[in-house]
Design brief:
With 441 residues, this protein is an all-beta fold. It is built from one helix and 37 strands. The strands form six sheets. Strands 29-28-27-26-25-16-15-14-13-12-4-3-2-1-37 form a 15-stranded antiparallel β-sheet. It is globular.
Length: 441
């Protein structure tokens, strides 16, 4: 293990140590809810904790909260909508091009009341608008009617699915481990409970970083501001959803704040674009208060062969990162389908990459990735090119950059607020990355 990782582990372990004899077990499949398993070159085995398989129903599922307040392992679903302004004809709407097999009836637009299996596609011209019942009134839904529409089968209630329970936190230090469990024996480490902030937080994917931030799980995104300069984030918070914090995106970075005072909705500005808006009057609006000091969790690379597991914090807590480490290439990676399933480094979205020039005549071209500079965002050092190959991203590019204007003139490229330019280099062949085999239960 690199010396830096050892020192960081020693520095941060007090955040999450202190479990004593009350140690949790590792992630374990149950008799009905089971995990997919990845086996890497060299023999490392990792349970894919991002999705569960309901063996009895032969489908993937994830914990979702229902109208009774409990969580059940529920398959992905579209939504039930009305296609007339009297709310007489109810159909299912799902995103186009998906393999979703169900649609959900929602309570208060948030909690699942029931599911229905999709039937035959709805014939005729797709509806241009849809409606919903709101306290007995048939009201037009705000979003567009885009999607695929289906007839539906009989209602499926929550007792058809496996109930998921949250354990009491393990440990006595600031960060305590919490797990999801089910009666069939499934155990899944899912989050930490931050005793200092009084909320649950989830470790963020931080490829190649020595630590991971723990972001609040029950955070509501601030889509408004309380002032014309857009300096005070405001979130619309539903009483139906437990909310512990307000998330605001500032200079491309997610930052988290305590929930402040409730404010009047008649004078709000849109967070993006900073223009005055008329906010829906049937919601409650809260200002962001003080910024939260989020804890850092050490990422500890285990011993092993070429591909190695990464433990988040105290290894006795068995909280394994979704990323693994390729010791041969010195990068973190994640199973990705290429010619075969391979462990590929996470990539910066291609939209971050723009063409520039290194000379004032705009004759020497260079691809530049503009990456967030100050929010501990993904430190991924790869992107993908137009041909789909992985390309390496170098360190910050400190020399002047130029761009060609529409009129043909070559001018200095403007800086992008909150981002630093990085040169994008050579493309890499797929066969340099290790293969992975996936074992579905």
């Amino acid at each position: 293990m690199p010396l830096l990782r050892i020192l960081l582990a020693a520095t941060h372990v007090s955040l999450i140590a202190g479990c004593g004899d009350n140690l949790p077990g590792p992630a374990t499949s149950g008799s009905r809810l089971a995990f997919q398993k990845f086996v890497y070159e060299g023999g490392a085995v990792q349970l894919d904790r991002t999705v569960l398989h309901d063996l009895e129903r032969s489908e993937e599922c994830s914990p979702q909260r229902w109208a009774d307040g409990a969580r059940y392992c529920t398959p992905a679903a579209g939504e039930m909508v009305y296609v007339d302004d009297q709310c007489l004809t109810e159909v299912a709407r799902v995103p186009q091009g998906t393999t979703i097999r169900y649609a959900a009836t929602l309570w208060n637009d948030v909690l699942i009341a029931s599911l229905r299996p999709l039937g035959n596609p709805l014939g005729g011209v797709p509806p241009r608008a849809t409606w919903k019942l709101d306290h007995g009134l048939c009201v037009l839904k705000q979003e567009s009617g885009a999607g695929s529409y289906f007839q539906v089968g009989e209602e499926i209630t929550s007792d058809a699915f496996v109930r998921i329970e949250r354990t009491a936190p393990f440990g006595t230090s600031r960060l305590q481990l919490v797990q999801d469990t089910s009666a069939d024996g499934m155990v899944l480490p899912v989050a930490f409970h931050d005793q200092q902030l009084g909320l649950e937080c989830a470790p963020q994917a931080r490829p190649d970083a020595a630590t991971s931030d723990c972001h609040p799980i029950a955070a509501e995104l601030a889509t408004y501001s309380a002032d014309a300069a857009c300096t005070v984030p405001v979130a619309a918070i539903s009483p139906s959803i437990p909310t512990d914090a307000i998330e605001a995106v500032i200079d491309g970075c997610a930052r988290y704040f305590a929930i402040g005072n409730e404010i009047d909705s008649t004078m709000l500005w849109a967070a993006r674009g900073c223009f005055a808006v008329v906010a829906p009057p049937d919601r409650r609006y809260f200002e962001a208060a003080n910024e939260l000091a989020l804890p850092r969790i050490p990422r500890i690379i285990s011993d092993g062969d070429r591909v190695r597991l990464i433990t988040l914090g105290d290894e006795e807590l068995h909280f394994v990162d979704t990323l693994v480490h390729d010791e041969q290439l010195g990068v973190d990676c994640v199973p990705t389908m290429r010619d075969v399933l391979r462990c590929m480094p996470p990539v910066i979205p291609p939209g971050y990459v723009v063409p520039n020039f290194t000379d004032s005549q705009c004759t020497i071209s260079i691809d530049i990735a503009w990456l967030p500079s100050d929010c501990n965002a993904s430190s991924a050092s790869y992107t993908t090119g137009a041909n789909g190959f992985w390309r390496h991203i170098a360190g910050p590019h400190l020399a002047p950059l130029y761009t060609r204007q529409l009129d043909g003139n070559c001018q200095l490229a403007p800086l992008v607020q909150g981002r630093l330019p990085h040169a994008v280099g050579y493309q890499l062949p797929d066969d340099m990355f290790p293969t992975v085999s996936a074992h579905t239960p």
